Amino acid sequence: MKKIAKGGFEIADWQEKPAGVSAGPKVTRATVKQKFTGDIKGTGTTEYLMVYRPDKTADYSGVQVIKGSVGVRKGSFALFVRGKFDGKQAVTKWEVVAGASKGDLKGLTGKGEYSAPMGSKGKYSLTYEVPA
Question: What is the reported pLDDT for 118?
């Protein structure tokens, strides 16, 4: 049976460095650590690869690993993330990577999104299933 996890997160650390070729568009790689509250409790680390346009908007993708709990189940899982930053807010779609979950979350599937305005706090939702 599908369930929906909702809550918030706060960015605990953001380390961003240039990546790619200096002659092309601005490309960066960022390691971001987050603290999740609500139906997902725990910590997440995301590795992003971002490309910026001259107007300071960006597209990005990456992988996030969350360690903690979803509902009453504890463990860890990976998400593939892809999103856009419009200069004011980042909106990201995420999907659980099949076979990349451990503990009581083994077999987790799902997808959802999160959003964050400029600043360190955001909201998420994840529609998910875990085998019985």
Answer: 80
Sign of CA dihedral 24, 89, 9, 99: negative
Calculate the alpha carbon distances from 102 to 11, 67, 68 in Å: 24, 9, 11
Q: Residue 67's domain is classified under what CATH number?
A: 2.40.350.10
Nearest one of 42, 31, 13 to 102, comparing CA atoms: 42
**pTM of the complete model:** 0.93
In whole angstroms, give the CA distance from residue 92 to residue 90: 6
Single-letter amino acid, residue 127:
T
Query: In which domain, by residue range, is 45 found?
Result: 3-129
Tens of pLDDT, residues 75-106: 999 999 999 999 999 999 999 999 999 999 99
Tokens of 117: 């305005």
Strands (E), the chain: 3-19, 27-38, 40-52, 58-70, 73-85, 89-103, 109-117, 121-129
Q: How many domains does the chain have?
A: 1
